[in-house]
Design brief:
Chain lengths: 178, 777
């Protein structure tokens, strides 16, 4: 992927690179090994450990983050591609007001068990509910199909997303009515 | 059976939210890979690339020259004993002279960064003399090549019931025979195996993702040559276990601990997914020969079974896993004449061990398939047939265990039929299938199971649990038990039990993760035993505390202790609930009165008597039961299966938390559906080829059925508030029920699991391909 603020012509494998990006609305400037992924940067350099590594191959979704408004597997985004991006992780999203209904619903519906997939699941759910106000069952199943969970069988996760959608819509309606 | 109305408890039996949910949801829960320590080194295991061979030479020199490498350890660097076998001493911590499977670790590297460790691992040179590997159970049983000098039989369990099995078959109205095979299943916990070891206090502290911190403690002490008290294990939040973190983490913890102890620095060892898939244990593949005789009246009168299980290169837990197979291979039925041989065999493949169900889902698949064949052939109703043969109070299992209490099997069969609307659906499906223009075929499948609680006769000496409860002077409570939370909801259920017993609010309770310095050895977190074992251990401690609190309350309220009742943070006068003292005030009073509010609890599983020679006796003290009904739809053109719905009726004694119980069932169903029709571990010449999640495919949101779970609460006298276990029973009937549904849709009983679309397509297209079906792959 061509990156924006970075030139990589003579880059060696062991070189460090400087990158700047926005993380949860704050500016980050950091030097990292050029072989690092966004996931490595988050977990090892910035100690944002809420984003999990389940496979490191873009197959499980445990490292789901929001990049420039879309969801990505952080383990597949190379450091060079992070420069200039607007990144949101579970640490940032979980503090946002419009994520509260999702978090509450995941608690109330017991939509987490071992919890390892859960931050990624929350990110995918948050993105899904920002995209669809009132998602259909099909849209929920499709929207979360990139996030593997080995514990729950997904039923309670889907229930939680539906409950959060209802809550969000209700809250918006209340705001409009007021 | 108590109805809702009769539930006198205020916390037990209620839909309490998970106590650990919020931290997990917002990403605050600390898993082992989230820990970092000053000067921490990163370890990487180096593994055999051949399935069998003699090690001629290991050369560390290139790796040691790499900048940032702190150490490269092989067998000769082990300060204690080079052994890791949990039950049998046949496995080295690091291979020394021989490698017995592709993926067997022979060296471990520690370096300043993960990248350097990875690079160094690739610079360790090993020379082998390759040997012919043993790759199938049939090759193994022939003993032409011996995997270990003592021979290839890991264990052989026999069950002999009745006088003469051959005569019994002669008297049968009809006899059915079939051989089934079943592949591996991989746990695929989302968090791979890992730990961090720290040299501390002239000993070692290990943090990690474990199901059995006390196994880890033992393994680390052995490898380092330290007394147990110098080895402290601290449990982290666990990202799923399912049996895969029972004995296996000991292997990694012992290696990390060794590096940390010698190099005097913290060492983190986290397996990457591919290595985890390659080296960690799996569910045993099996070849299962079944022969069942039935009477004219629909009773099973004879059962003969021979199972060959692929134990892999080392025993690990095979001897205990296959013991369970030997108790459960006949299902929850009364059969007067039984002959069973369950044989575990060494091969040059990855060791197999514990996985949710512990050697039972395989044999249940075979047994329930036989019942499906019988019912289809005779035109017998699958529920009535099961009921006609079912265990009930006063009846005896295939091991001649006379059931005395807590047996809700027949109720689960009735409930599953009713709640699944089986009879209505059956008519609809028959009509649907008769219409040849439809693209799909629909099928219904049934299966019933029983599951022996706790560790049973073969593991009774491990079957104990400790607890510690401390009430602080402000009324907040800390609990510590020896079994772990791995996602199943143990903390919540145990907090409910403690809250009920102490009469405090559940919000007052705080959990300390397992710390081997706080609680005594409590055995493993397996066998669906945590609610019963740690629950009872907590009750033991809580009852001691409650006595003190009641005495203090009686003094405060100026009444007799017998008149005090406790509930949800208040100790009342039983005659006047307005007269009360709060839990918090009581705790404060006890503090000032110097009444100690810290107690240990301990519980031992009921003793059972079993004869291993004949396979007769009481293998377990009590059983959970379940019946599942599955609806599937099979695409005639592609052979693809959609599992649309499962109805599961479980007898787990008292349901402590209905919401968490249904969550367990849904999760078990998903894992079982994957096992039945999707998850196909491919192994070629002893090398696992499916080393990622795009090749070893587990169910996603789009593959899981609607699940309806219902409960029968036939309480067990030994369980806390009458509870039994659910963790494993949730998965156990799933495979058999799904395969029966697919078989009924396709009109062919499938002999191999997973039942993949290509096989179904072949059957539907009447192509006969019997090759590869007879061997365990």
């Amino acid at each position: 992927m061509p990156n924006r603020n970075f030139t990589a012509e003579n880059l060696q494998l062991k070189d460090n690179i400087d990158i700047c990006f926005k993380l949860n609305s704050r500016d980050v400037k950091i030097k990292v090994p050029c072989t690092y992924t966004l996931l490595d940067i988050l977990r090892y350099e910035l100690k944002h450990t809420g984003t999990k590594e389940g496979c490191g191959m873009g197959e499980c979704g445990a490292c789901t983050v929001i990049m420039d408004g879309g969801i990505v597997n952080a383990c597949l985004v190379l450091a060079t591609a992070v420069s200039g991006r607007d990144i949101w992780t579970i640490e940032g999203v979980s503090a946002k007001e419009d994520a509260k209904p999702i978090i509450d619903a995941f608690v109330a519906k017991t939509a987490t068990q071992c919890g390892f997939c859960t931050p990624g699941m929350i990110m995918a759910s948050y993105y899904l509910l920002s995209k669809y106000k009132d998602p259909t069952d099909e849209q929920i199943l499709e929207g979360l199909s990139g996030n593997l969970c080995r514990c729950t069988g997904y039923a309670k996760i889907v229930e939680a997303v539906k409950a959060a959608a209802r809550e969000l819509n209700g809250a918006k309606k209340e705001a409009r009515d007021a | 059976m108590l109805t809702k109305k009769q539930n006198l408890y205020s916390v037990v039996g209620k839909k309490v939210n998970r106590v650990d949910a919020y931290e997990k949801i917002v990403g605050g829960a600390r898993y082992v890979d989230d820990l970092a320590f000053e000067d921490m080194l990163f370890a990487k295991m180096v593994c055999s690339t051949i399935p069998s061979g003699r090690i001629k030479k290991i050369d560390k020199s290139r790796a040691l020259k790499l900048k940032g490498v702190a150490g490269v350890f092989t067998a000769e660097d082990i300060t204690g004993l080079n052994k890791i076998g949990c039950v049998v001493d046949d496995q080295p911590l690091l291979a020394k002279e021989t490698v017995r499977f592709a993926g067997e670790p022979f060296a471990v590297v520690a370096a300043e960064t993960r990248e350097i460790a990875e690079e160094a691992a690739g610079l360790i040179d090993i020379e082998y003399e390759p040997l012919e590997p043993v790759l199938t159970v049939d090759e193994s049983v022939s003993e032409k090549i011996k995997v270990h000098p003592k021979g290839n039989v890991v264990c052989h369990y026999k069950v002999r019931k009745g006088d003469n099995i051959d005569e019994a078959f002669n008297k049968s109205f009809k006899v059915y025979e079939k051989t089934f095979t079943i592949n591996y299943q991989e746990h695929l916990y989302l968090e791979t195996q890992g730990c961090v070891a720290l040299p501390e206090n002239e000993g070692i502290t290990v943090y990690g993702s474990f199901q059995c911190p006390f196994y880890v403690q033992g393994a680390v002490a052995t490898a380092l040559g330290l007394p147990l008290a110098k080895v402290r294990i601290l449990q982290c939040v666990v990202g799923g276990g399912f049996g895969g973190k029972e004995d296996v983490p000991s292997e990694y913890a012992a290696k990390a601990a060794l590096l940390a102890y010698v190099l005097k620095k913290p060492v983190k060892l986290i397996l990457d997914r591919a290595q985890d898939l390659m080296v960690s244990s799996k569910r045993h593949p099996m070849k299962m020969e079944y022969k069942v005789g039935v009477t004219k009246k629909g009773k099973m009168n004879a059962l003969k079974v021979r199972v060959l299980a692929d134990s892999g290169a080392y025993t690990t837990l095979s001897t205990v896993v296959l013991f369970r197979s030997s108790v459960h291979f006949g299902g929850p039925y009364v059969i007067p004449h039984v002959s069973g041989d369950i044989i575990g065999l060494y091969t040059n493949r990855v060791p197999c061990g514990a996985y949710r169900g512990f050697g039972t889902p395989q044999v249940i698949y075979a047994m329930e398939s036989m019942i499906n064949i019988i019912c289809n052939d005779m035109g017998w109703d699958p529920f009535e047939f099961r009921k006609n043969n079912a265990l009930k109070k006063g009846a005896s299992s295939i091991t001649s265990h006379k059931i005395k209490e807590s047996c809700g099997l027949i109720e689960t069969i009735d409930k599953a039929r009713k709640e699944s609307e089986y009879d209505k659906r059956k008519k609809e499906f028959d009509k649907w299938n008769a219409d040849k223009s439809k693209r799909t075929l629909k099928g219904l499948g049934v299966s019933s199971i029983f599951y022996g609680m706790n560790l049973g006769a073969k593991g009774w000496f491990y079957d104990k649990a400790g607890s510690h409860i401390q009430i602080c002077r402000d009324g907040s409570v800390t609990l510590c038990v020896g079994n772990v939370e791995m996602g199943q909801g143990a903390k919540t259920v145990l907090a409910q039990i403690a809250s009920e017993a102490l009469g405090c609010e559940i919000s007052a309770i705080n959990f300390t993760n397992v710390d081997t310095n706080i609680v005594p050895d409590s055995g493993p977190t397996v066998a669906s035993r945590t609610t019963v074992m740690s629950g009872n251990a907590l009750l033991d401690a809580a009852n001691k505390l409650r006595k003190k609190l009641v005495a203090a309350a009686a003094e405060s309220l100026k009444i007799k202790p017998g008149q005090v009742m406790a509930k949800l943070g208040k100790y009342y006068n039983i005659k006047d609930s307005h007269q009360f003292v709060s839990f918090k005030d009581l705790a404060g009073k006890c503090y000032l009165d110097n009444v100690g509010l810290s107690e240990m609890g301990y519980y031992v599983s009921p003793k059972v008597e079993y004869d291993l020679q004949s396979g007769q006796g009481e293998p377990y003290y009590v059983y959970s039961y379940a019946t599942a009904v599955t609806e599937v739809e099979v695409d005639k053109k592609t052979g693809e299966v959609r599992v649309n719905k499962m109805t599961c009726a479980h007898d787990i004694g008292r349901v402590i938390n209905p919401m968490l119980a249904s969550a367990q069932v849904e999760g078990g169903v998903a894992q079982g559906v994957g096992y039945a029709i999707m998850e196909n571990m491919v192994s070629e010449k002893g090398h696992i080829k499916t080393l990622g999640l795009s090749t070893y495919v587990i169910p996603t949101t789009k593959d899981c059925p609607e699940v309806k779970s219902v409960f029968v609460e036939d309480k067990s006298k030994d369980g806390p508030y009458g509870a039994k276990g659910l963790g494993e029973p949730s998965l156990m009937p799933v495979v058999a029920s799904v395969v029966n549904a697919v078989s009924n849709a396709a009109g062919h009983q499938f002999e191999h699991v997973p039942v993949l679309p290509e096989r179904i397509w072949e059957v539907l297209n009447e192509k006969n391909s019997s090759e590869d079906e007879s061997e365990v792959k």
